[in-house]
Amino acid sequence: MEPTASAAAEVATLCSELIRFDTSNFGPEGAAGEREATEYVAAKLDEVRIGCRLFESEPRRTSLVAEWAPEGCDRSLQPLLIHGHTDVVPAVAADWQVDPFAGEIVDGYVWGRGAVDMKDFDAIVLAVVRQRQREGRAPRRPIRLVFTADEEAGGRKGSGWLAEHHPELIADCTEAIGEVGGFSLTVNDQRLYLIQTAEKGLAWLDLIASGTAGHGSMRNDDNAITELAAAVSRIGTYEWPARIRPAQRQFLDAVEDVLGVEVNTDDAEITLARLGSIARMVGATMANTANPTMLSGGYKVNVIPGQARAGIDGRFIPGHEQEFYDTISELIGDKVRYEVVVGDVAVETSFDGALVDAMRASLHAADPGALAV
Questions:
Q1: Which contacts of 34-38 are long-range, i.e. CB under 8 A and separated by 24 or more positions?
Q2: Which of 119, 172, 311, 370 has CB 3.0 to 4.6 Å from 114, enough for a Cys bridge?
């Protein structure tokens, strides 16, 4: 069904207004908090008589849970969880053509930090729910709406905290829908709608090299920075082998049918380049990854420090967690160690069942040429 005019008109405004809340998440000790943005979401739900509860894992780290089960929905059915997060990764204003927290609409697009990840999705959910509630169009089953804090730093103060302290809030939900979505990919006149069925595990690592401190003018064969730099270089240039799981295989099979060519896993990204900008995202799902992202060490140019550190953003394919950590241990060598700053499991589900059937039916109703992959 096409969105009603008022929902379509409202969604860009909601997205812009959400962007104006600076919910930058710099990590465990560097987040301003999501309170105002979450209170904004609560107010928009309250306007259409949908009550909600706010939870704080610590001051200003606010998450929201709401139950949308109006008259007309079948409350004997288990709820569908629809979830989003309100925090964003930081933005350096000098790197932007517009103020990243102004939520400007330019050339028909909403610009700003969170316009893609994921205040756009939050706005879509709010617009649809508000419009249906105003028109009295109940969902078939109850909907559990959850907007969490801290997703961009691993979720310990958001979804992780809710799962640990309030598991009853989602224990009755059998399926969940979250980011990413809302777009199609056209290949050879065929519109593909990508539905994510797996998520790589998370391994944010702190590499620590220890050595012998000393004066910068002296020879030093136990230099922490030298050892760390070598380990970082080995990790950054390592080519992880392809690991094709059922989720990737299903997608590649669909792409092969549309492109009319076989996708060889050894050079998949070359073939997938025909898909456009999404090729890099798809390529990243086919192997473990580990990217150096931060470096620190030393306090004066003529002093060799006793310790140096680096940050690594690691992700591992479902079923290949141990391979990831074993490889990292080999790459860093004997003089560097790692600590897991944030770790989370990899998950995977099959692309079938009633929820997938409902997605396909909904896509076909709006776009008869839709192919869900």
A1: 34/60, 34/61, 34/62, 34/63, 34/86, 34/87, 34/149, 34/150, 35/60, 35/61, 35/62, 37/86, 38/62, 38/63, 38/64, 38/86, 38/147, 38/149
A2: 119
